[in-house]
Design goal:
Layout: H1 6-11, H2 13-30, H3 48-58, H4 68-102, H5 110-122, H6 134-153, H7 159-179, H8 187-214, H9 218-238, H10 263-282, H11 290-297, H12 299-323, H13 332-337, H14 350-387
């Protein structure tokens, strides 16, 4: 996400497309799979968060010579500052939406703000409206830990060995959460350990695999896609339930339903390789697409705000249902109770949630950029006048 600079994304068109695919999958999953490309055979929830980590790893160039304090300060600016900004905005938006839905203000007291604070640093987000930014604080911790390890080991670092070790620890986390009742306070370090292999996988892909795979002819890439699809279909057939290939809810480290603790790693690697190959094969037609470019450049805004726009749409529907025309099967009490409500008079209505979940944050970002540009132009004009 924000650890990938706009400049580096624009210079690497394949990963620009890949990051756009990744954020669209997340919004689509939260919209109850309105499009669901290949979701029936490569379920989004089996790899899309590891895919974001993989992309961050690909662009993460640290080693024993890295200025660690400078690196941390840079990540604080690119990740933590917007994280806390969107957290504050999320709390305010949550209170506003509660007022619109329920007609009363939510009771806010010391305990409420303590819960916001605790949830931000353990679950990763203070309120559901900005639920998806849980990933940002985990990514920050992960990047700092990884940079510290690279600094410690220097030239002795071996990416293949590190990936294997990280994979073992990631699998151990799955065993731990399946075996014990894990307290909320340790979720952040456990999520960091769980996702660490995919950071290293991004580096391995960049340094050792990308050139080799890019030399494959289209037939070779199609064959690779077919093999990955076949492996996943066989896994879905022989696991107790087809969706056992999914990796659960990483934000709470729950829902790991496969009886095999290695399932999350296998699912993630297959999903990542599948979509990297898709980007290799078909991404070039989107390299100069302005919409894809803008989505890729603003994944943070989409990640943070798509839930708000889902609920903004719900409030419009509630107004229509209450004041204009009754909407078939619109469940107002449930909608007022949870931010996860989606109205589905027909299944295709999910696509509207997907579209508003993408267009809303992008439109807001466009407005923000215009206001910022106007303010900067005004300041520049004032300085010119003073000099004159």
């Amino acid at each position: 996400m924000s650890s990938i600079t706009v400049a580096s994304r624009k210079s690497n068109k394949k990963f620009m497309v890949l990051s756009a695919f990744a954020i669209i999958m997340i919004v689509d999953a939260h919209a109850q799979y309105g499009v669901g490309l290949f979701n029936s055979v490569i379920p989004f929830n089996s790899f899309f968060i590891p895919l974001f980590v993989f992309i961050s790893g690909y662009f993460n160039k640290v080693d024993g010579k890295t200025d660690l304090l400078g690196y941390i300060r840079k990540k604080e600016q690119s990740l933590l500052v917007p994280y806390f900004g969107f957290s504050v905005v999320g709390v305010i938006l949550s209170l506003i939406l509660y007022r619109i839905k329920n007609g009363t203000f939510q009771q806010v007291n010391y305990e409420t703000f303590l819960r916001y604070f605790m949830d931000a640093f353990t679950l990763g987000a203070p309120v559901t409206i900005v639920f998806s930014i849980w990933f940002v604080i985990v990514l920050f911790v992960m990047l700092v830990v990884y940079a510290s390890l690279r600094k410690l080991f220097g030239k002795r670092w071996n990416s293949i060995a590190a990936f294997i070790i990280f994979m073992v620890f990631s699998t151990a986390v799955v065993w731990c959460v399946k075996t014990f009742d894990v307290p909320q306070l340790v979720l952040l370090p456990l999520k960091t350990i769980f996702l660490m292999p995919y950071l290293e996988l991004g580096i391995i892909y960049r340094d050792k695999l990308e050139d080799r795979l890019s030399k494959l002819k289209p037939g070779g890439n199609i064959l690779l896609l077919g093999v990955l699809l076949l492996i996943n279909m066989i896994r879905m057939m022989y696991l107790p339930e087809p969706l056992n290939v999914e990796i659960g809810s990483i934000d709470t480290l729950s829902g790991f339903d496969s009886p095999f603790i290695i399932t999350p790693v296998i699912s993630s690697v297959i999903g990542i390789l599948f979509w990297v190959t898709i980007a290799d094969l078909f991404g070039s037609v989107l390299y100069e697409n302005k919409v894809i470019n803008y989505i890729s450049e603003n994944t943070f805004w989409i990640m943070a705000l798509h839930f708000f726009f889902f609920n903004f749409l719900n409030c419009i529907l509630m107004f229509i249902d209450s004041h204009i025309i009754p909407l078939k099967e619109f469940d107002k009490p449930f909608m007022c109770e949870t931010e996860w409500y989606r109205w589905e008079p027909i299944m295709q209505f999910r696509i509207l949630y997907l579209l508003i979940g993408l267009a809303g944050p992008l439109g807001l970002k466009l407005l923000y950029d215009k206001i910022k540009s106007s303010v900067m132009a005004s300041k520049a004009g004032s300085k010119t006048v003073k000099k004159a």
